[in-house]
Amino acid sequence: MITAILSRLGRLKVTFAFGAALAAVAFALLHFGSKVEAHVIRNASTNLHNLGQGRIGTLISSAFVNPVDSIQIWLPGVVAVLALGELLWHSRRLLVAFAVGHIGATLLVAGGLAAAVSIGLQSRSIADVADVGMSYGSVAVLGTFTAAIPQRWRAAWIGWWLAVACGSAVVSGGDFTAVGHAVALVLGMALGTRFRGSAHWTRPRYVLLAVASAFCYLLIAYDEVPQTIVLGVAGAALAQVVWALRRAWKSPQTNSSALASIQSDSQASGGSSSSSPGISHS
Q1: What gap in Å lies between CA 188 and CA 137, rounded to an integer?
Q2: CA distance 174 to 184
Q3: Which residues, 6 or more positions from 159, have their beta carbon under 8 angstroms from its beta carbon?
C-alpha cells in the first residue's frame, strides 16, 4: 500500500518541483514586504513595456510570481491541475502543455495589445500594466484534459469551457487577461489532440479533476460568475444536443452501409454458387 502510494507520488516530479518553487517565491515576497513584491512584479511582468525592451526572460519568470495574499487558494488549485496533467500525460507533455499555454497566450495577447495601441483602440498606459502569474499555463493544461474526458461527456465539456472562457472575455469588455485565458484554453484543447490516448479514470483522478476545474473556473470567470455560469450551462447543453443529433444522423447511415455491404456479399455468394459445376476457372 505505502509502496504504491510512493510510486504514484514519484510520478509527480514536475508538479512537486513547480509547486515548491511557487510556494517559495510567494513566501519570500510575503517575508520581504510589499515594496519588494511590487518591484519583483514590475520586473517579472510580461507587459508591453518589458517585452518591448527585449526582456524575454519575463516569459519564464512571470509564471513563478503570484499574489501572496491568496496563496491558500491558488496553490492547491494549481497543484491539482498539474498533478492530473502529469498523471494523464507524464512529465514532458505536461511541461509542453504549460509552456505552450503560458508563453503562447502571452505572446498572442501582447501582439493583440500592441496592434490595438498602434491604431488607437487601447491607451498607451496598458503597456505598463502588471501581467504575472501561472493562470495561462494552468488553463492550457486544463484544456488538454479534453482528450481524456469520456466520449459521452466530451461535447458538454468543450461547450461549457468555450462558453465560459469566451463569455468572460466578452462580458469583461475585452479584458486582456480574460482574452488570454480563452486563448490558452483553445491552445490546450488543440494540443490535447496530439496527446490523445487511453485515460484510466480513478476516484482520486476524478477528485483532482473537480478541484482543477473549480480552480480554473475561478481564474477564468473572475468577477463574471453569474453570467459565465449561465453561458456555460447553455454552451454545454447546446454542444451535447449537437453531438447527440450528429450521432443519431450517422447511425442510420452506418446501418444502411452495413446492410448494403451484407446484401452485396449475399449477391456475390449467390452468383458464385450458380456457376456450372465441374468448370475450373484459372
Answers
A1: 9
A2: 15
A3: 235, 236, 237, 238, 239, 240
Domain ranges of the chain: 12-150+172-221
Any idea what the Cα angle at residue 75 is, between residues 164 and 102, rounded to 5°?
55
Calpha distance 101→136 (Å, rounded) = 6
Tell me phi and psi for residue 11, to 5 degrees.
-85, -5
* pLDDT at 276 (0 to 100): 37
* Residues 182-192 pLDDT 10s: 999 999 999 99
pTM of the model: 0.85
Between CA 122 and CA 114 the distance in angstroms is 9
